[in-house]
Design brief:
This protein has one domain: Alpha-Beta Plaits. Helix content is about 40%, strand content about 30%. It contains four helices and four strands; from the N terminus they run E-H-E-E-H-H-H-E. The longest helix is centred in the N-terminal third of the chain and has 18 residues. The chain is globular.
């Protein structure tokens, strides 16, 4: 069985109107095209260790880590990524799942 791939994002939304109306409305069809699914999308993550403040967390699941990379580097995502850059700051990670 192949391993799943994940995209994990820690975000600070600086312009909620632009983020939710401009970026999210454009990214959802791209996420769907790459057959990813939202596992987590929350504005209230509970940090239980460390001093880090993380206002928003997104966790997407893809069929493979290669598919997660294809999504992030796709022309479709490149066309809209500036909406995210202008409305938030983020740390993004692409992660390998565990086989099994």
């Amino acid at each position: 069985m192949s391993k799943k791939g994940y995209l994990f994002a820690e975000l600070t939304v600086t312009d909620p109107n632009a983020f939710y109306e401009e970026y999210m409305s454009r990214v959802k069809p791209v996420i769907k095209k790459f057959e990813a699914k939202f596992l987590v999308a929350t504005d209230s993550p509970e940090v239980i260790e460390g001093e880090r403040v993380v206002p928003r967390v997104i966790f997407l699941e893809f069929s493979s880590v290669e598919k997660a990379r294809e999504f992030y580097y796709s022309p479709e995502y490149e066309d809209i990524i500036d909406f995210r850059f202008r409305s938030s700051s983020a740390h993004l990670y692409i992660l390998d799942g565990v086989a099994g």
